[in-house]
Design brief:
The complex is a heterotrimer of chains A (242), B (285) and C (343). Chain A has 242 residues and is α/β, with parallel strands linked by helices. Chain A is built from 9 helices and 10 strands. Chain A has a single domain, classed as 3-Layer(aba) Sandwich (Rossmann fold), CATH 3.40.50. In chain B, a hairpin with a 2-residue loop joins strand 1 and strand 2. Chain B has a two-stranded antiparallel ribbon with strand order 1-2. Chain B contains 11 helices and 2 strands, in the order ααααββααααααα. Chain B has a single domain, classed as ABC transporter involved in vitamin B12 uptake, BtuC, CATH 1.10.3470. Chain B starts with a helix and ends in a 9-residue tail after the last helix. Chain C has 343 residues and is mainly alpha-helical. Chain C is globular and about 85 Å long. Classes of the chains: A alpha/beta (242), B mainly alpha (285), C mainly alpha (343). The interface between B and C is large, with 46 and 46 residues.
């Protein structure tokens, strides 16, 4: 069975600096995969490379087996991959509803099929309905994260890339957001979840990858991987977790 | 009464300037690019229109209907061939590129049309006047003002309510995030420039009707558009409109004080606004 | 947990030299000195017409280098430097013609005018975003032009003539012009080179590459930008005074002619922005093109404009940028290289 999304020897550079040194991953339909690792390990770079925000060779990223590496970002969205970017990156100056409408507009324009509607989103995150007309920059961090997720979902993605939801959010808010993930999975969307909080990552996903300095150092089923294994992979072999 | 007359003339002049300023505000708001050849494009369109009129005996309305689509096409081509290559965080390339284009255009027009001033024959509309509230105002300036208001209103609605407008605002807020939402920035920019230059099509006809046009006039129009946008405050379509009014009124009053002082009065008001409220009258601090 | 110090093994500092000059630089320096001397002694080997042409070329070089400093290092793209050229030119004419001050002294006194004017202008304009700053400088130049057209002290629109120059013989004037040329190049090119080699130079290059990073390293970016702006204003003023003294006549239209901006931008972009070598190359190209093709008038300028456009799109680093990618042989070396001392 072909993976929905797979990377093969993914290499990425920022100018002279090499950030990824040949990363192999795969994501199957209906799966949720976690990507953990220390800061600077290359997790965000990995997601950005898939989305065409960094130049990569065609064959390094495959969608349903088709090479799509380096496709421009907006075309990747049309192919069914959406990203909830690090730092939320909402359109400041526009209302919550307008932020979401932008996604609806684009999905309609390309005839994307999918079950996500504004109504369904309001059920998932009721606050979005309440604050529909509010300018997006006056929302709290957690509310902004919900808008960002909603915006990505309204692109009707088959694959959702989630870059560090929990960054800068209070635990209660994080739980609220992660509580919504099962419903997103139930809709048939496969997910890659980049997450700093290892425990959270393990509990929300089927499998995980751990990265260190641009390479995958561990992969396994989330429920089976041990603390020690993660510790070694996270920090590098030979470093004790005290 | 003299001063009221100056005020009215100034408002009508502002209507003209608004048509220059709208396009500039749109392009800068969306792409952070100022097209130095903005004024030269108006002059080019005017001269083309004048040539069409004299070659085929057209009146102003047919010229308008031909120029606006031509202008839209020009804007689209400009974006695709030149501006899309220089959009980015570094302002220097777009400045130099459009500067070079401006020099090239002015001298090309000089070659083709010579330095003589020309105007568009309007079949009498330039001299007609209407009576409003007891005073006589020229019909053409009123038309210019009405069209300017309609264009501003239309642009504002477009930005707020249409899909294209939302995509434009998204791209100007965060172009990468816009791409992540499925927007093709290059296509959006091309349409924005097409609209911006399309508006200049109207300005071109009106400018050629109300006064004369010569190849070297471009920079002056650029400066008026720029001053209007700064006075009104960047990031606001109605701001550009009001800024144009303020500029027009300043020039009108200055002209009434002394005919040589008109343009300078506008510059001085611009500098005062720059010194005291640099974000513009309607800009956010 | 106790902390213990880990002693560094005893090592010696590496035996290195800081190399600041290169062979190509030494050659260029020699040629430059010879060139300056050649300039200064022009009256003895060149005709008056040649001296006038060379003077014009030197003015282009000076103005271009000032634009280069502004845009290439301070990130300030000005299209209105002609404001300072005309201001100094007019000051010269007023001081020398109206007040009878020795014209050669007046040239230096006239520099006070652009220096003083630059301060409020900078404060007015510096808050403007990139391209709006540029147009702002153009507006200022236009304001100067309109004001001069209406100022009786400079004879308004009719302009002024520098008749006092008749008091000097043709030979004396030639000597003066030649020396002023040499001085102008020394001040603008030499001054820039000296600046770039000094510690200000490091700050400037840091500011050029990344203003935010530079600021985080303690570079007072705002103050440096302001100082560069004033220096460039004075430099352009010097070129203006010298140019109009040679012209013997000044009018508002010629004093504040946007042509200077066009030429400066062309020279720097074609030659290579951010390098003194680029200014020299660009000036030479412009000078030759002007002599050969200037007679074609408007078409010639169309080509200039298009070339500027194409360079901005496809070859932003200009000729020197392309050359220096291949061969590392600067004429004006400003880098510091660490070189192992030979034992």
């Amino acid at each position: 069975m072909t993976a929905v999304l797979s990377t093969h020897g993914l290499i990425a550079r920022y100018g002279d600096f090499q950030a990824l040194y040949g990363v192999d991953t795969e994501l199957n339909a209906g799966e949720a995969v976690a990507l953990i690792g220390a800061n600077g390990a290359g997790k965000s770079t990995f997601l950005r490379s898939i989305m065409g925000l960094l130049p990569v060779s065609r064959d390094m990223v495959r969608l349903d087996g088709e090479p799509v590496g380096g496709t421009p970002t907006d075309r990747m969205v049309q192919k069914g991959i959406a990203i909830v970017p690090e730092g939320r990156r909402l359109f400041t100056g526009m209302s919550v509803e307008d932020n979401l409408r932008v996604a609806i507009d684009q999905a309609t324009r390309v005839g994307a099929k999918g079950g996500w509607t504004l109504g369904r989103l309001h059920q998932l995150f009721p606050i979005l309905k309440e604050k529909a007309r509010t300018p997006v920059q006056s929302l709290s961090g957690g509310q902004q994260q919900m808008v960002s997720i909603g915006r990505a979902l309204l692109c009707q993605p088959r694959v959702l890339l989630c870059d560090e939801f929990s960054l800068g959010l209070a635990p209660k808010v994080i739980r609220e957001i992660y509580a919504a993930l099962p419903e997103i999975r139930a809709a048939g969307t496969a997910m890659i979840v980049v997450e700093q909080d290892v425990g959270l990552a393990q509990s929300a996903t089927d499998r995980l990858y751990c990265m260190l300095e641009g390479r995958v150092t561990l992969t396994g089923r989330s429920a089976e991987v041990t603390r020690e294994q993660i510790g070694e992979a996270y920090f590098g072999a030979g470093h004790a977790v005290v | 009464m003299q001063w009221f007359d100056a005020l009215v003339q100034g408002i009508l002049l502002g209507g003209m300037y608004a048509q220059y300023a709208l396009g500039m505000a749109l392009m800068f708001g969306v792409m952070r690019i100022v097209n130095i050849s903005h004024g030269d494009l108006v002059i080019l369109l005017s001269l083309v229109g004048i040539s069409m009129a004299s070659a085929w005996g057209w009146g102003p309305l047919p010229v308008l209907m031909a120029l606006v689509p031509l202008a839209v096409l020009m804007g689209w081509v400009l974006q695709k061939t030149v501006l899309n290559k220089v959009v980015g965080s570094d302002p220097l390339p777009s400045l130099i590129a459009t500067f070079g284009l401006s020099v090239a255009l002015q001298n090309l027009m000089l070659q083709i049309w010579s330095a003589n001033s020309r105007s568009l024959p309007g079949g009498g509309i330039e001299s007609q006047s209407i009576e409003i509230g007891g005073i006589y105002i020229g019909l053409l300036p009123v038309i210019v003002l009405v069209v300017a208001t309609a264009l501003t209103w239309g642009l504002d609605i477009m930005l707020k309510r249409t899909r294209f407008g939302r995509a434009l605002r998204a791209a100007s807020a965060d172009v990468e995030a816009a791409a992540m939402t499925g927007i093709n920035p290059r296509a959006v920019y091309a349409l924005a420039t097409a609209v911006a230059v399309g508006i200049l099509g109207f300005a071109a006809v009106f400018q050629a009707l109300r006064s004369t046009v010569a190849p070297a006039d471009g920079p002056a129009q650029l400066i008026y558009a720029f001053e209007a946008v700064i006075i009104g405050g960047m990031g606001s379509v109605w701001g550009a409109f009001i800024g144009s009014m303020v500029l027009g009124i300043s020039q009108g009053i200055g002209f009434r004080i002394d005919p040589g002082f008109g343009v300078l009065a506008g510059h001085i008001v611009f500098l005062i606004v720059l010194a005291t409220r640099p974000q513009g009258l309607f800009g956010r601090a | 947990m106790t902390m213990t110090a880990i002693p560094y093994a005893d090592t010696e500092a590496p035996d290195v030299l800081v190399e600041r000059q290169s062979r190509s630089g030494r050659i260029a320096m020699t040629l430059a000195v010879l060139g300056l001397i050649g300039l200064a002694v022009m009256p003895w080997w060149a005709s008056t017409g040649t001296i006038r042409s060379v003077l014009e070329l030197c003015c282009y070089i000076a103005v271009a280098q000032m634009w280069n400093l502004l845009a290439g290092y301070a990130g300030l793209v000005s299209v209105g430097q002609q404001a300072f050229m005309g201001a100094a030119g007019y000051a010269l004419f007023v001081l020398a013609q109206t007040y009878g001050i020795n014209p050669f002294v007046a040239i230096f006194l006239s520099l006070l005018v652009p220096a003083v004017l630059a301060v409020p202008i900078y404060f007015l304009l510096h808050r403007l975003d990139g391209p709006y700053f540029s147009i702002g400088t153009w507006v200022v130049a236009e304001v100067f032009r309109l004001t001069a057209s209406n100022m009786p002290i400079v004879n308004s629109g009719a302009g002024m003539s520098l008749r006092v120059m008749k008091d000097f013989s043709s030979f004396e004037r030639n000597v003066a012009m030649s020396l002023l040329c040499a001085f102008m190049l020394l001040a603008t090119l030499g001054g820039s080179y000296w600046l770039l080699r000094s510690r200000f130079g490091l700050a400037l290059i840091a500011m050029r590459d990344n203003p935010i990073a530079a600021a985080s390293q303690g570079v007072n970016v705002a103050k440096l930008r302001f100082l560069i702006y004033v220096a460039a204003a004075v430099g352009c003023g010097l070129a203006g005074s010298i140019y109009f003294m040679a012209q013997l006549r000044i009018t508002p239209g010629s004093a504040f002619d946007p042509m200077w901006a066009n030429v400066a931008i062309f020279i720097v972009m074609i030659g290579g922005i951010g390098s003194i070598e680029g200014v020299l190359i660009g000036s030479l190209i412009y000078f030759i093109a002007d002599r050969w093709f200037g007679e074609y008038g408007a078409t010639y300028f169309v080509v200039l404009g298009l070339m500027t456009l194409l360079v901005a799109l496809y070859a932003r680093t200009g000729i020197w940028g392309l050359v220096s990618k291949r061969w590392d042989a600067p004429w004006f070396p400003i880098r510091r290289k660490l070189v192992h001392r030979k034992p």
